[in-house]
Target: Coenzyme A biosynthesis bifunctional protein CoaBC
Amino acid sequence: MALAGKNIVIAVCGSIAAYKIATLIRLLVKADAQVRVIMSEEATAFITPLTLSTLSKNPVLVNYYQPDTGEWNNHVEIALQADYIVIAPATANTLAKMANGLCDNLLMAVYLSAKCPVFFAPAMDLDMWKHPATQHNIERLRSYGNIIIPPGNGPLASGLIGEGRLAEPEEIVAFLENYSEDSLPLLGKKALVTAGPTYEAIDPVRFIGNHSSGKMGYAIARQLKQLGADVTLISGPSSLSIPEGIHLISVTSAAQMLQACEDHFAAASIVIMSAAVADYTPIEVATQKIKKKEDQFSIPLKKTTDILATLGARKKDGQIIVGFALETNDELDHAKDKLARKNLDLIVLNSMRDKGAGFATDTNKVTVISRNGEIKEFSLKSKEEVAKDICQLILTHPLING
Ligand code: CTP
Model:
């Protein structure tokens, strides 16, 4: 059994759906998992700690300290001992606190101390669920690497019908079983991902750069990690936070990115190059700040090494290489040309003509072209969802799945 022996912390929030947690705990205990329950103060109004402690065979913790003995409940220890933390039902309020790092109860302190995979199963009324603030919080949680167990569609406690029902206990257990490391499809595989822009120095204070945020590459790195891969992310300058459990190598210039890629390429079976690498770099970098003199000024540039083409030329059996192409015109032709020229297996095409696609947005719209000429067009979605689509294509690719 995939969950046998796993330490699972169930964090219960104040929602009418909390009654389903009794069944969830029974199922997990039956699967031989060790279950510890923590609750928010509000959750105790919906289901008693006594019920959940009896079912989980462990004391239930609500506060930072035990009111009777004054003993401190060590949130760090609870979090570090957990193999999985499951926040269920996750209310709109707790999701908002998680997205913003608030820490006003034991449950939030455990969440913030977690190093293991954190799952959250939302439960709320359909309009609360659809509200942009809630959806924005969920996107943020995804970007932190937290995993959503999606809510179901159906009758809600309010009497309305729609999305927002807590996933059924059986579904939550199945979700956790499928996630279990033993069944992760990319377990044992190494992945190399590039992300962000490169900065090419002109003088000590200036550079040539671009608007890439790194969001697409970071989302791909997180997704590959969730599928079990051992991920190295080589990133140009980016303000994004370091994804949990990923080996991050920070670089500045195209030359540094090339070196880092060459160091890690041979070991990787999945290579995804989403970085917006500068095509040209100044021939010389001024050692001192260039002073303003002439009305017109030009900087002699030389081509950078094409990292993707360099790696493509060295590709060995068992390696899959995915490139990106950002185009403004004749998109498909340019992308197909790049795929062939750089010896790629897949190319992800963004068109600057599509609204919401490309740099510095939270969304993207891509078309993926494979070496055998297959073309898959996707709709506009969040970069997290696009990363999922790309990873699914990799998972089903004969080089990985053959
Ligand atoms: N790329 C790279 N090294 C470079 C330039 C680009 O590895 N020096 C990679 C990017 O990470 C991306 C792909 O090549 O995966 C496509 O980059 P793009 O700039 O669109 O392609 P180019 O071949 O440079 O073509 P052009 O700029 O003429 O469109």
